[in-house]
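Can't paste images in this forum, so I'm doing it all in text. The chain is below; anyone willing to post the predicted C-alpha cells underneath?
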Amino acid sequence: MRIGNLGGRLVLVDPDSEHATDVERASDGRFGAHPQAVFERWAEFVQWAADVDPSAGEPFDPARLGPPVPRPPQVFGIGLNYRDHAEEAGLELPEEPMVFTKFPSSVTGPYAEVRLPSDRCDYEVELVVVIGQEGHAISADRAWDHVAGLTVGQDLSERAVQFRGKPPQFSMGKSYPGFSPVGPVLVTPEEFADRDRLAIGCSSGEEVLQDGTTADMVFPVADLIARLSAIVRLLPGDLIFTGTPAGVGAVRKPRRYLSRGEVIVSTIEGIGQLRTTLG
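Text version of the structure:
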C-alpha cells in the first residue's frame, strides 16, 4: 500500500496508473482528510484500505503531492549510520546510535523549493521510517510491527551552524525551514522484497552525489527502533531519518556544497524520488 498527501488530503496511490483514491470520500467519512490523523488509527486504517483498489481513483499530478507525514510529533536523526560514510569521514563505527533531532517545522514535501541560508549547505539522502504504532521498550524482533511504512528523506544540513559549537549543534543546523523534505509517498513494509536492502542515491543533474544501499547501515531499522524506544516512547507518525551513505559534500576533497538553482534528486528503490529545488 502507498499513501500520500495530495493537496493536503489523504489518498491511496497507485504508482502504475498515477491514480489516487481520496480516503475520506471512499470511506464515507470513516477516516478524515488530514494525512497526519491516520497514524492514530493506523491498524484500523490498514484493515480498511486492504479492500480498496487505488487504480480505480482519479488521475493526479504528482507535483501536487505534499509530505506524507506533514507534522510528525517527533523527528529523530541518526548520524554516522553507514559503514561507507564512516570510512569516508575517517571515523570509527559508533557503538551506539548517534541521535539528534530535526524539528518538525523543517518538514516539507517531495517537490519543495528550499531557500539555502548560506554557501555551506550539504545534502544527505536518507531512508525515513514512519511509526504507526506507539511503544516503549520495543524488542528488535517486534520492531517492524510498529512501522507504518518507509519514505524518502533529505537531511539538508547547514554545516557552519552544525559544527560551530563545542560540542556541535546538530539539531539547529538541520532544522531550517524546508530542511527535511520527505515523500513522495509512504510505502508499507510488505511492499518490499527485502526491506533492509534498498538502493539509495542522490544526484544533481548528471552528477551522482551518493550511490549506496541501506544494507550498509551500522544499526538497521529494527535495531534503531529497539534502541530509541528503550529510552523514548515512540508515537504514531514519528519520523526516523536513519542516516546517509557515503558521498556527502562536507568530507569531499574539495568540499562540495549546494548552490542556489540546483535541483537535488533523492531516490530510494521501491519508494520513488524527491526533487528539491534550491533557492
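The helical segments are 23-26, 42-49, 83-89, 159-163, 170-173, 221-229. The CA atoms of residues 198 and 262 lie 26 Å apart.
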